[in-house]
Amino acid sequence: MPFDPTKMKDWQIAEEAEKTMPTPEEWIDKLGLEKDELIPYGRTPRIDFIKVMNRLKDRPDGKYIEVTAITPTPLGEGKTTTTMGIMEGLGKRGQNVGGAIRQPSGGPTMNIKGTAAGGGNALLIPMTEFSLGLTGDINDITNAHNLAMVALNARMQHEANYDDEQLAQRGLRRLDIDPKNVEMGWVIDFAAQGLRNIIIGLGGKKDGFLMQSKFGITVSSELMAILAVAKDLADLRERLKHIVVAYDRKGNPITTADLEVDGAMCAWMRNTINPTLCCTVEHQPCFVHAGPFANIAIGQSSIIADRLGLKLFDYHVTESGFAADIGFEKFWNVKCRLSGLKPNVSILVATVRALKMHGGGPTVVPGRPIPEEYTKENLALLEKGCENLVHMINVVKKSGIKPVVCINSFYTDTPAEQALVKRVAEQAGARAAVSEHWLKGGEGALELADAVMDACKEEVDFKYLYPLEMPLRQRVELIAKEVYGADGVDWAPLAEEKAKKFESDPKYADYATMMVKTHLSLSHEPTWKGVPKNWRLPIRDILVYGGAKFLCPMAGAISLMPGTSSDPAFRRIDVDVNTGKVMGLF
């Protein structure tokens, strides 16, 4: 029987469900693993990716299901909850199903958003371990990233203190690093706005090189993006050596390989290629792997986790960050191109609440009461907002996929409102299902599960939006028009100068186009809801990730270090000193 989420908090549901979690021995039997393919780690073991893939390399892949969404309110519309729910629904139908989601960052967990484990009866467990570090991937990435900065600052100090002959005696050559052109900063896995801009090296000549520096949040690190797109350990190792740390005084890139730190960075990250095994409250297996920023990196669970899941499960569910204009677009044109995998179906999550917002409803603010327009029936407001849903359906259809719209049910929704959304979705050429997985778990997701299984029977003529041969500016123009609905693109002089340079250099021919913009609107302006009309996308700059092989055109300002609010989640989190249990997680 499902738990009652109207009377129990998520952490209480998790605590009860964890009492019957499979043991490592039971997981080995349930997943059909060899004993040495499960790496023990308390209640959250890792899967040995290399061993499993070598053994199952000839096994046919299962069905590949992606989860995306309409443009959300700032509260989110339940993609992770739906990811858990569809796994539970397929499990109730007797299917061999599993999935993959990203690891939550300590910044959002301890800030406003809280943990990213889903909710109600569609929740990932063990919730405490999932929310507080898990098996250490983020810690390993933090150490590997900061080691590159240690190498850079030490090298700059030595080059300032020694002449060329003295450097040669120490086995070093002068890199002539430009202290005013350092690309990387340090990382920490918290939202710490006070570290966005710092000065390091204060003191004497033995205290490092005096320079301006900065911190980002760990999940924004290029190393996290690399983990998400790497196909295996060899690919990870190769990408690490191409990370641009700084530039010399002539403008040439200084890489981790130039600093001779790339091998040690890989040593820190060697275990991160093995996904961690968690599960839903109904005990469907779910891998947790990678946690990259969705607005500046790829924002997906890893290629490695998806490759593994497609070998182990008949249905593998993967989640994309943010809405279809960002998450699905990057899944479609970047992740699938890099992995060579082709999806069978995409689930497009929609809520009545978010659609009313797009219809002109009042502003939704985290931490404040929801305006009554969102809790009372208003068909006119809802129908107007369905323009955003139809737009997102059409985005997914451009890939050759016929999406399944999941109407993620809230207790305040009325039957007439849900029927309206379903009708609009079906008229736009999508399947649609109302799902009550938050309230009822797998039993509430049976209609959704049936729609997804039905969709998986269809042949998909999957095709990318653009060929790799297309120049960068043409790609951005196409994405802006076909995905965002813009009339065109306006390039700032700096961005256009960089774009021309990248287009003329064959080195960048196979770099992925990783768009950077707000997730709160189809446009670059977060206050423009629905489907904005008569606007152009401004590109102000282009960031380069040399190891991940990303070119990131920036439509707006994106901070790599979020700030902590005045009422953060950590104020309500504590530990029961008699049992050691964590209380108060979202």
UniProtKB/TrEMBL annotation:
Keywords, sorted A to Z: ATP-binding, Ligase, Nucleotide-binding, One-carbon metabolism
Residues reported to bind ATP: 73-80
Enzyme Commission code: 6.3.4.3
InterPro entries: Formate_THF_ligase, Formate_THF_ligase_CS, P-loop_NTPase
PROSITE patterns the UniProt entry points to: FTHFS_2
MF (Gene Ontology): ATP binding; formate-tetrahydrofolate ligase activity
Pfam families: FTHFS (PF01268)
Reactions this protein catalyses: (6S)-5,6,7,8-tetrahydrofolate + formate + ATP = (6R)-10-formyltetrahydrofolate + ADP + phosphate
Family: Belongs to the formate--tetrahydrofolate ligase family.
Name of the protein in question: Formate--tetrahydrofolate ligase
Species name: Thermacetogenium phaeum (strain ATCC BAA-254 / DSM 26808 / PB)
